[in-house]
Design goal:
The chain has 319 residues and is α/β, with parallel strands linked by helices. The chain has 2 domains: 217 residues, P-loop containing nucleotide triphosphate hydrolases (Rossmann fold), CATH 3.40.50; 97 residues, Orthogonal Bundle (Helicase, Ruva Protein, domain 3), CATH 1.10.8. Helices cover 44% and strands 16% of the residues. It has 15 helices and 11 strands. Strands 2-5-8-1-9 form a 5-stranded parallel beta sheet. A two-stranded antiparallel ribbon has the order 3-4. Strands 6-7 form a two-stranded antiparallel ribbon. Strand 6 and strand 7 form a beta hairpin. It is globular.
Length: 319
């Protein structure tokens, strides 16, 4: 199977997205990795770092439908998935679909809704199906959830359940732009080239159609992952279950996610084979949101990312 088409599309998608999103090359790459592996992303960043704009831009670039849900404490599951409403004229119930029936779904500030509302996404994220009044409805095959969180404001928020966090392939941290990027943003803001304006003016061109995305995902199967690297990857995930500072380690879904992420990163780097560095680069964003530290180590100031780096240093890299 030829991966040249996949490499070409990934390159074009980065270039088109970069017309609107200033800097954030790493964030764009990781978002594309989630999309092209058929997985979901948890995006964390302070307000104003273009989290929403990123997803809207990617939906335009990849020719996909986009919906946004603002999660609030009073949001109900039916507000997300939809409900059956009785039609007096037809004398029957008809389905009013919720915003979840889309291709790219932005769950904005997902931790502001209680657990029963967050759980409305569980079946959709895992099976791409929605059950309403005992009837199951399919979602588009490229259905992807991008959920955002604000890392500095926890008042009035509800922690994500572990089962839901595990369904997110990557945790993508969006940092504030550096000085040069923020200067570019400031200069653009005073002209017709403001990021939101560029998107509204259709400056960003689709690189593929939504129906082609599913076929391109299959191209990742041609990216070679050697047996010894597979064993290296498995050892990394298994080490999280026995590390002294970790209370809850990563499960088998983390292993699957790391395999897919490493393959996609190799493809986005223009290679048809995975290297140990691909695995090392993708490990933190695959594992960070899945691990829970023991309280005594948290009190000492240790972070999950520091533990992950310790594990990477302890496991021998295959030659």
């Amino acid at each position: 199977m030829n991966t040249e088409r996949l490499k070409e599309v990934l390159t074009q998608a980065r270039q088109e997205t970069g017309k609107v999103i200033i800097g954030q090359h790493d964030v764009i790459e990781k978002a594309l990795i989630c999309i092209f592996t058929g997985n979901h992303a948890l995006i964390e960043g302070v307000p104003g770092v273009a989290k929403t704009l990123l997803v809207r831009t990617l939906s335009r670039v990849l020719g996909a439908e986009f919906s946004r849900i603002q999660f609030t404490p009073d949001l109900m599951p039916a507000d997300i998935i939809g409900t059956n409403v009785f039609n007096l004229q037809r004398n029957e119930f008809s389905l009013i679909k919720g915003p979840i029936f889309t291709s790219f779904l932005l769950a904005d500030e997902i931790n502001r809704a209680p657990a029963k509302t967050q759980s409305a996404l569980l079946q959709a994220m895992q099976e791409r199906l929605v059950t309403i009044d005992r009837e199951t409805h399919p979602l588009p095959p490229i259905f992807t959830v991008f959920a955002t969180q604000n890392p500095i404001e926890y008042e009035g928020t509800y922690p994500l359940p572990e089962a839901q966090k595990d369904r997110f392939m990557l945790k993508i941290t969006v940092a504030a732009p550096d000085r040069a990027e923020e200067l570019t943003l400031a200069q653009r803001t005073m002209t017709k080239d403001a990021p939101e304006t560029l998107l509204a003016q259709d400056i960003v061109q689709p690189v593929i159609k939504a129906e082609d995305l599913r076929e391109l995902r299959q191209e990742l199967g041609a990216v070679v992952l050697r047996e010894e690297l597979t064993a290296y990857l498995v050892d990394i995930v298994r080490a999280t279950r026995s590390h002294e500072s970790i209370l809850v380690g990563a499960g088998p879904r983390a292993t699957q996610s790391l395999i897919m992420a490493a393959r996609a990163y190799a493809a986005i780097s223009g290679r048809d084979f995975v290297t140990p560095d691909d695995i090392k680069i993708m490990t933190p964003c695959v594992l960070e949101h899945r691990l829970i530290l023991r309280p005594e180590f948290e009190i000492e100031g240790m972070t999950v990312l520091e533990v992950i780096q310790q594990i990477l240093q302890q496991i021998a890299v295959p030659r």
